[in-house]
Task: structure prediction
Amino acid sequence: MTQTNGDLFEAVSSQAQTAKAAARVLSTLSTAQKNEVLLAMGDALLSSANQILLANELDVQDAISNGQSDSRIDRLRLSHKRIEEMVSGLKQVVHLPDPVGERLSTRKRQNGLVIDQIRVPLGVVAMIYESRPNVTVDAAGLTLKTGNAVVLRGGKEALRTNSILVESLRKGLTQQGLPEGAIGFIDRPERETVDMLIRMRGLIDLAIPRGGAGLISTVVERALVPVIETGVGNCHVYVDRDADFQKATSIVINAKTQRPSVCNAIETLLVHESIASAFLPLIAADLIAKSVEIRGCEKTLAILQTLFNLHRDHIVPAQDEDFETEFSDLVLAIKVVHDEKEAIDHIDRYGTRHSEAIVSENMVAAEEFLQQVDAAAVYHNASTRFTDGFEFGFGAEIGISTQKLHARGPMGLEALTSYKYVIRGDGQIRG
Amino acid sequence: MTQTNGDLFEAVSSQAQTAKAAARVLSTLSTAQKNEVLLAMGDALLSSANQILLANELDVQDAISNGQSDSRIDRLRLSHKRIEEMVSGLKQVVHLPDPVGERLSTRKRQNGLVIDQIRVPLGVVAMIYESRPNVTVDAAGLTLKTGNAVVLRGGKEALRTNSILVESLRKGLTQQGLPEGAIGFIDRPERETVDMLIRMRGLIDLAIPRGGAGLISTVVERALVPVIETGVGNCHVYVDRDADFQKATSIVINAKTQRPSVCNAIETLLVHESIASAFLPLIAADLIAKSVEIRGCEKTLAILQTLFNLHRDHIVPAQDEDFETEFSDLVLAIKVVHDEKEAIDHIDRYGTRHSEAIVSENMVAAEEFLQQVDAAAVYHNASTRFTDGFEFGFGAEIGISTQKLHARGPMGLEALTSYKYVIRGDGQIRG
Result:
């Protein structure tokens, strides 16, 4: 290991080690104590608002000089209002029920043993994320409420902002007599720190990557600690033969255009062939009015191209790769399918198991779709945009899991917990 | 990729792909259909008993020629009785409740959406295991009952036995009209097949390694698919100042000697210093009578060595590494601790978070231990040997998880499931 690497490794491992030590303390706190800390953190953020904005301005200036895109700069930029939103986020977490200590099951065995299954914190959670500085505050709040320590590794473009945010949050901890190591923070910009962090078996209990597909697959591929994959969404709406066209158009337009950059927006529309010539012109008119580019299969083009000759720039042939792509933009692939089975097979082949919807008035078709489609969230006659911790009523969201282990779909506080078996006896031994 | 590797990769990926296709079929089976298949599998095993024993005899002869240890050969060897036990294991699985389809929660939202959280199969489970051929049958039965496909990769020393077992199990599948690909099997001995299997993202939903520490850490380090770590157990009993000595001796002897090779046996005894000079001679006499070698800390030796001068071979100084070792044998490290906190700190440092016990009549001390010790199972006045799916009343066990994600401790059928959110609406869109 080179000098620099040894130094870097030391920086990362010291944060993980102090977080682990702090996790033992956090796991024994009462709900009231944790809520006090959350409020103190919020106060500390408000008191440091001017310093936070100053540090943020430096990060934003650098991002502009480095030619970052407007959307990245927007995600990076804070304001008084955004700081207040972070603080109000912490206050919302105060009001959520504390899952830690919940008894999940009890078994009394014939030999007299009583086996309780009790919800406990995970221990130390590593968050690896990109430019949004609000993740720093959200993650600190949610992990604290669940009695976990956290190690934060944000994007290097937000390093100054995150540093001062963490400094403020730690003031909230120490004011309440807690170790500041409960919020670990990697204050170095080097990319290797991510690799180091996600390989610290025995120190890190869970790594959660939040960001683009590149970040997520890097973490999944290189991690030695358990990871929850989040966020990649190639989602579909299937408009069935027996669809109500009004519901179908409103759901497709909402799912595609209300916020096209997010993971629960749709990328492909599947249409049953027996209604294609009636439905496609309706939806195409609405899509074009919303400036959506249509990438259609042959049958789609055959129906639309003559009708929409004036808008031919907006209607182009779909390539196979279009069906694999999360456009995250005002682009929609459209495919006419022979029947529901072909729609389900298409989703099985191209989908990322995030959110999938059927629009149909036929209950048999709907139930088949809901049962057979393998995804975190399957919808009948509703927009895929509802896949969200707040919309599901969890009161918080640490991310949206697209894997099947531990947590699937929107992750609330419970996703940050594990359990242990507590067994009480009176001298029992195994025969 | 070399010719051989390409060929090997094809062999592994074809099993994973056919398993994935089969998983879609399995996920829609009723409980009754799955139970029929389990019974048909049992019948097929009994009909093939002679062929199974012949194949097993060839594996056993090879293992003997290769100089394998007696304990490995014993694990490998089948008999009519062992085949009957496998079949009765399948019948037990028939009687277990089917977790798939269970509604875990329901939320009605103000906008009229109804969100059901429904338990579903994981999809495709890869089992990577060593010599015991009964794992082949157990894993096939448990994954089938939970609607999952499985890909089995057993030890090369059991290849002939496992091949014929899988052939019989598949007869049970096809007799019931199911695809034999539901039980995938890697019929090649090369070690690289493990690496290939645990890197098939998108095909394998979960890998479970069962075997020695080497196998488990190889799988954890190299896998790209989610893994559940199983089985490594460095477990402790702490005998508190207020312990009942009779309970303490019986629990320590049981936890150490009833079956020393298993993961829930203890490796270290921690004794409160204020009772050490009274308790250690009692427990030492019992341990020595059971041929257990004691590796004691300085204080332990000071108390025991003069008293047990005749047995000085059985009482040796403990090295620091002894406290890190899963002896899996009749060896016990003993350490005198200043107080309960030192006991908990010792467990935190050296334990593998498997099973930990306190013996005490003091309820305050007991509750502190149960709350503060971070392990899958924490015991008050009972032997650690109870950490087991059958002893916990799960009716089955696919392994014992020592990680905190997804499943912790003994894993029954539920550990082989995930869930999905099923959302029913009437045209709702997000505002």
